[in-house]
Structures are given as structure tokens and as C-alpha cells.
Design goal:
Number of strands: 6
Shape: elongated
Distance between the termini: 31 Å
Helix content: 25-40%
Strand content: 25-35%
Number of helices: 2
């Protein structure tokens, strides 16, 4: 399960950062998930709840913020928003686009004690 390994990596990152920044408890985590990241957010939330048990993020609130997929169209010469099932420009329907980092998953914000 891809979401499980992502959840484990996030908890590890929170624990590693606690050693650097000196916090003992995480109360809130905002996760940004790109529309093209191929992640089931419900599954990720479930996995985070499981892997956070016994860690400094136990009982933390996890929230997911979706990031829109954007691309530069080489034909229209403008930024366009694309959806996750078509990697074409919505204006001219070309595939000559450069997609931004819409496949990323990152911890955007944490609240600690």
C-alpha cells in the first residue's frame, strides 16, 4: 500500500524534525496533495491514524489540502489548469504542455507543543 509508506515517512520526518526543533508533541498537520499524486486521501488519513500511534503525533489532527494541477501550454503560451484524467490543454487540446509539480505530497504546516 503506497499510502502506508507515505504515512510512515511523514511520521518519521516529524520525529526527526522534533530532534532539530525541540518539540515534544504534534497537534496538527496540514498535508498538501497534488491532484496528480495518485493518492487516495481517505486511505492516507487512515494510515496516518494507525502509524502515529505511540509517536509524538498520536492524537494529532491531520488535514489534507488538494493542490490543483497546472501546466504551461506551449501552444497557447499561458498557464492552464488541467484535471487529473486529461493531460491536455483545456483550451487547445494539445499535449504540448509542461505540468508543474502537481504530483507532490508534502507537509505544508504543523502545530507543535
Amino acid at each position: 500500500m503506497h499510502e502506508l509508506s507515505i504515512a510512515q515517512s511523514m511520521i518519521e520526518q516529524l520525529e526527526n524534525n522534533s530532534l532539530i526543533y525541540g518539540y515534544n508533541k504534534v497537534s496538527f498537520v496540514l498535508i498538501e496533495v497534488g491532484n496528480l499524486a495518485c493518492i487516495e486521501t481517505e486511505s492516507l488519513m487512515f494510515c496516518l491514524d494507525i502509524v502515529s500511534k505511540g509517536t509524538l503525533a498520536e492524537n494529532a489532527t491531520f488535514a489534507v489540502q488538494k493542490k490543483r494541477a497546472n501546466a504551461w501550454c506551449f501552444i497557447c503560451e499561458k498557464n492552464v489548469e488541467i484535471n487529473d484524467d486529461h493531460n491536455t490543454c483545456p483550451t487547445c487540446d494539445t499535449t504540448k504542455i509542461h505540468i508543474d509539480n502537481s504530483a507532490t505530497i508534502l507537509i505544508k504546516k504543523i502545530e507543535v507543543e
